[in-house]
Amino acid sequence: xxLFSSILHPEGFHGHGKTRRFFEGWYxxxxxxxxxxxxxxxxxxxxxxxxxxxxxxxxLDGATKRSWFCRxxxxxxxxxxxxxxxxxxxxxxxxxxxxxxxxxxxxRGTLQFSAFNPWPxxxxxxxxxxxxxxxxxxxxxxxxxxFFHTLTxxxxxxxxxxxxDGGVGYLxxxxxxxxxxxxxxxxxxxxxxxxTSLVASAAIIPWLTxxxxxxxxxxxxxxxxxxxxxxxxxxxxxxxxxxTTVRMAFADEEHRLEVETARTGGGLLLAPVxxxxxxxxxxxxxxxxxxxxxxxxxxxxxxxxxxVGGLEVHGELxxxxxxxxxx
Length: 327
Hints:
With about 325 residues, the chain is mainly beta. The protein folds into 2 domains: about 1-175, AttH-like fold, CATH 2.40.370.10; about 180-325, AttH-like fold (Beta Barrel), CATH 2.40.370. About 5% of the residues lie in helices and about 55% in strands. The protein has 2 helices and 22 strands. The protein has helices at about 5, 315-325, and strands spanning about 20-30, 40-45, 55-60, 65-70, 75-80, 85-90, 90-95, 95-100, 105-115, 140-155, 160-165, 165-175, 180-190, 195-205, 210-220, 225-230, 235-240, 245-250, 255-260, 265-270, 280-295, 300-315. Strands 1, 2, 3, 4, 5, 6, 7, 8, 9, 10, 11 and 12 form a 12-stranded antiparallel sheet that branches. Strands 13, 14, 15, 16, 17, 18, 19, 20, 21 and 22 form a 10-stranded antiparallel sheet that branches. The relative contact order is 0.15.
C-alpha cells in the first residue's frame, strides 16, 4: 500500500520502512457497563534516533491510578497498513476485539468490539487531521478510529474475572516523531444521552521555522459530527489552564462548543520524545467534562456532563495558552 492509500487509512500502521525516529501507538479505552472498571491499553512501537527501539503495551488502571509498561522487542511487533490489526508479543488488537496476555501486566482475556464509529475519512479531509494529514513534515499525526463501540467478553484483572459485557470502548492513535511540546487533551463518551462522544485537544504545532497553537475538537452526537479545527476555519475562543480547571471554547459560523473539566490526579504513562520513549505523562480516567454546544445566533443544542473522561495536561502550558490568546 502506497503513501496516499495509507493516509486514507489512519487506523492502520504508518511505520513500514521506518528504522529510526518514529513512534506509533493505539489508545484503547475500555469502560465496563457499571463504570467501575476503567482501563487504557496502548500497544505501540518506538524507534530511537540511532536505530533500535522497543515495542510495548502500556496499561493504565483508571480506578487505582496504577500503570504498567510491558516491554517487548521490535521484532515482536506486527501491524497491517490498511486496517487496525496489531500484534505485540502474544497480545493482539483489531477491529474485532483484543486478546491480552501481558507479561508482568495485570490483564488477561479477550474482548469483542461492535462496529466502530470512526471520524469520517474523505479525499479532501482524511480523518481528524483534515488536509494536514497530507503534510509530510508534521511532528505528530492523529487519528480517531472509533468514537464509541460496545464491548463484550471478560478480562482477568489481577486474578479476578471481570465482565465487560455492555461496556463502552473508544479508540484513537498517534504516530510521527514526537508528542507536542505542550498540549491538553480530553475525551469522554459517557453522557446521559447515548451515542454521544467528545474528543478535544489543543497543542503547540511546529511549522517550518515557527509554531502555532493547533486545535481539534469533535463532538459526535447520535450520528452527527460537529467538528472544530484549525484547518476547518473554526477559531479557538478560549483556552484557560490553571491548577484546578481546564476550559476551552471553539466556534465556527454556526456553532460554539464549550468544554470545562476539573483537573484530577491520574496515573503515569510513557510518551515519546525525539530521543526516548520514557517521558512521563500523567493521565486521568476520572474526569467529569461539562459540554455545551450552542448555536452562534442563540439557543442551546446540547448540554450535559460526561463522566469517566480521559484527561492529559502536559508540557509548556503557559506558552500554549499565550499563543492561543494571540490568535
